[in-house]
Amino acid sequence: MERTFAIIKPDAVKKGYAGRVLARIEAAGFTVCTLRMIRMSKREAEGFYYVHRERPFFAGLTDFMSSGPCIVLCLEAPDAIKKWRDLMGATDPAKASDGTLRKEFGASIDNNATHGSDAPDTAAFELGYFFRGLELS
Ligand code: CDP
Ligand code: MG
């Protein structure tokens, strides 16, 4: 078993897609270990996306992620990190395969509906950024 960190991003929550994304998560066989709806501050979004701080899209990305409520989740499954990245699809919804969440629910590369950790070390950092150990037990 493996755990990964996921976000249903503010665009998807605002458009009323959260329930459908959760249904897809369950149908794909993930266990939702825990989840919470939060509204990130600009500083919290900057801390979360610290690895991207030098990128040209950093300011827009952190404005967007702090623009409204999102849902943060811990997902568990065999090979969960890759399994969740595969279900999300490519970063740019225009390049995402049919049947992926970003294809179905994303509008553009900056409004792409979902987030997922890309490796075991980032999953550990990202889970720890939003959840206490007790919530993940
Ligand atoms: O989310 P993912 O891991 O697929 O992509 P990333 O390269 O880690 O980028 C993080 C997020 O920044 C993406 O999900 C996009 O929302 C955003 N981004 C953007 O707005 N413009 C870009 N040119 C690249 C990424
Ligand atoms: Mg990433």
Report on this model:
By secondary structure, the protein is an alpha+beta fold. The protein has a single domain (2-132), classed as 2-Layer Sandwich (Alpha-Beta Plaits), CATH 3.30.70. The chain is built from seven helices and four strands; from the N terminus they run E-H-H-E-H-H-E-H-H-E-H. The protein has helices at residues 10-14, 18-27, 42-48, 58-65, 80-88, 101-105, 120-130; strands at residues 2-8, 31-38, 70-77, 114-116. Helix 3 crosses helix 4 (58-65). It is globular and about 35 Å long. The model has no long low-confidence stretch (mean pLDDT 97). Cytidine-5'-diphosphate is lined by residues 57, 61, 91, 109-110, 112, 115, 118.
